[in-house]
């Protein structure tokens, strides 16, 4: 038969053992109350036996096992209220509800007379019950748990006894009348007092007549906030409290009175050393009615002025003072006195102030108050406590080079201060900043250069600027503090308006650590060069600026931190408003690693120029370092001179980039430019010197610069990449706006092969100056190399110095019909022996062949080489130095009907023996200077080369045949064919094989007549 078990919750695949256990325990579990825990925890339903434990859990203050059950439950229920209101009077009253005695709480201000502040009295009424020691202990503990920690109390127990009492008494009175002598006059030693706040003056009192019987008197002050007065040994002590005027009235018992007029004035008190009695003590407005106490307690006017202007001047003592002595000077009733040394164009030397003891008044600024006081070494505690209106404190202690320490709370009362710029600038002996020096000065906006150049300062202090909620500028605050080793604790806490930290710690070369929460409350703004030149800094806290969500500029922030080893991952991540990271880590010459996603999410960052410039040992850069850099425009010199860098990071998100000028210059460990490294960067315009001197760079991947549709400048991009051996044929595909490839592969001495159509898409290119200059491994050129460069006009030095280049395709320039200049195109190509006859056939616009084949290995020149170039006007040095050239065809220049200049064309062709007849016939040649200069093997008769009767256009023959010692013929005959020649020095110098050499004029052989 089937048992009536409660429904099981086991899964269908439960084992037999599990089912057996389920059935065995089901009935017992079903009988358990569902809300057991809630039932036990409820004061109304909890079993009686468990109530003490529930009371313990609720922390019931008073408990008695003899209470009734309901009273125990009520006590537990009240506990919640007591704990929520603990520290209040209501909580104490509730805590005493369970006491058997009546209680009443009397707070100190309700007592008569008033009790001590923050105390109360507990009146306990016996109610005819005995009060045991345990009862008193319970009362005490209940109150202690409910009161606030500040308040203390006393316990008074009252009993009461009722009954009837009887009393009786009597009284009597007598009267005795005698004559009395009363005071008639009060005479005071002083009726007017000028006091400084805190000063005390004694006024003696004389009651007349002398035989008056009752000479007692009282004193009252009209305003105790200005001055107080008290009677001491029959005299009155008047003490100044704060600036203002009041009166002190002295009154006898019979109403006779006298009045003291009290004026509490502004004061400046200091200690000075008299170096020269004729030097000033201080600077002041000359129309102030002030007195000077020279330390003898006498307020005098023993001084004169040295006027600085119509209003202000310096105060010089007229009292006899001893040079070399120190004086404590008290100046009363001045609101303008200071230790200013300069006024306009006038400067003076003061007797040195050494200590500032007190300054009070209603003045509103302390600008340059003690600026330049090089002898000042101490400012007393409380010196500025009574200056309620101060706003500007610019340069207050600037240049106080002997000031070694500051008192705590020096500016605590400057609640309206707004500007502390350069306050301690150049205080070179100041070693420490007191805790909270400027804390809670909520109106200050400027702390610019506040401690700049305090070269002995060791720490930025604790809570230095805490809660300066309006402060915006901390520019150069600790700049030049060369001994500063840490940034203190919480110095910028609560600086919720801080937006300019440019150069704040610039040049702090001893700074070793940065507080991780240094900028935890700072919204951001400008951080330009904030830690520049901190040469002892080795590491950075992770995400130091994570809270600075309004930061905009980190230019040069860590520039020159030469000991910094690494940049943490995500260091600047997700700072949404930053637009500038230029030179941020420039010159960090020990930096080995820049972590992952360092600039990730900085969506508005535009400038990364020179960000890691000259980080010479930087080996590793996170591939995603620029992730999310969707606004980045310039990466100029970003990794310039990072000689240990082995790989490029990704720029995949940087599609607004416009410049990679010198981006990887001299990255001599870089081995490859990855495929599509810069592909699709449609706004980039320049890669000027981008990979110059990357001496380990071996390959450039497919499409590396593909579709850089705005790119115009590839000047010297890969110059000096001596290990480069592989170029992708499509690396420049889609770069149709490139106009400059000057020196593009200059000195790529390992480059032996060029891909066909390397420049096929460069349709805007007009010149290729030095593009492959000194590519000494290059042996041949593909025929379609320039096929797409249809607007090419110049090939100056394009293959100059390619000493291994031996083969030129005949159709190399087939598509370059706009070519105008081929200057030095193949200069120094020593392996080039043969020139295709049709090389320039498609270039009818060429106007000059300057040094085109100079110093090549050419043996023979095709006669029709220039037949398609009728616009040529000059052939300067075209074949100069071709040491293997043996002959020149007669028709070489036959179509050059516009050529006028043939300077140095075959100079130094030392193997040249034959020149075709009439080489320059029918040409408008004007200059043939140095034409065959140094051709020592030339044997052709001079009259054969120039076989016409006259060459009337030639005017210059300087050194035309100089050194042609084998040339034959008659020089005089040649001279006769040149009726208009004007310059001919050295024309036949050392031409000793001429038939008439001995008869030639001296100025045709040398430069002498």
UniProtKB/TrEMBL annotation:
InterPro entries: Big_2, Invasin/intimin_cell_adhesion, LRR_5, LRR_dom_sf, Surface_bspA-like, Tail_protein_I
SMART domains (alphabetical): BID_2
Domain of life: Bacteria
Gene3D superfamilies in UniProt: 2.60.40.1080, Ribonuclease Inhibitor
Name of the protein: Putative prophage tail protein
Species in which this protein is naturally found: Klebsiella pneumoniae
